[in-house]
Amino acid sequence: MQLERLLHGQGFGTRKACRALVRAGRVTVNGEPCDDPFADFDPAGLTFTVDGEPWPYREKAYLLLNKPAGYECSQRPIHHPSVFSLLPEPLLNRGVQTVGRLDEDTTGLLLLSDDGQFIHRLSSPRHKVPKVYQVTAKHPVDAGQIDALLNGVVLRDEPGPLAALACEAVSQQVIHLTLAEGKYHQVKRMLAAVGNRVEALKRVAVGGLALPEDLPEGGWRWLGERELELLASRK
Ligand code: URA
What we know:
Blueprint: H1 3-9, H2 15-23, E1 27-29, E2 32-33, E3 47-50, E4 53-56, E5 62-67, H3 89-93, E6 97-98, E7 107-113, H4 116-123, E8 131-137, H5 143-151, E9 166-169, E10 174-179, H6 186-193, E11 198-206, E12 209-210, E13 220-222, H7 225-232
Parallel strand pairs: 7-11
Antiparallel strand pairs: 1-2, 1-3, 3-4, 5-7, 5-13, 6-7, 8-10, 8-11, 9-10, 11-12
Helix pairs in contact: 1-2
The chain binds uracil (URA).
């Protein structure tokens, strides 16, 4: 693939802008400077740098972000900054989208991608990909509330009761709640339906993929093959 086209596809601007980047000597490929925008490279396994910053070639972008509180999962946020402001520009130019949404005050594991099928598979209710939330409740979560969450609660505007796949007490006021769906404010509405209230909400896993402990809030990373496999698994 010609370098100009390769950079364009990786989000570095228009073909013309990418040509100018290369001609200005700002690009290296596999460790060697390259100022010919039409030089041909096999993209598989290639790493290029732009202004010294390394970028492994990725046909599709699969990302994990540790969402901080105070960010909206929207391209056009209303009250708070957008989670997209936490990503570098080339990823935005590639058109990455969030896989579902977390509320402004929810923290934790948020996936993003420019692969429409991947986004659909993970967010469609038909696929029932489990999402695990760490819920800090206002009041102690008693056995009756846990039973009700597991047996199903009725929420306004939902056709049938919604039940958690799993609900484990971590401490008196903290539970891990696993849901198959991603309905609007689902955790908050389910906790309210059993007579409690969410004080803090953090998504800690999607499918078999847990939020990495070493990723700081606001940080993001590429997902590797192994992590993509874990996402598809149910554990
Ligand atoms: N459920 C909620 O109530 N909020 C979220 O952000 C995610 C799930």
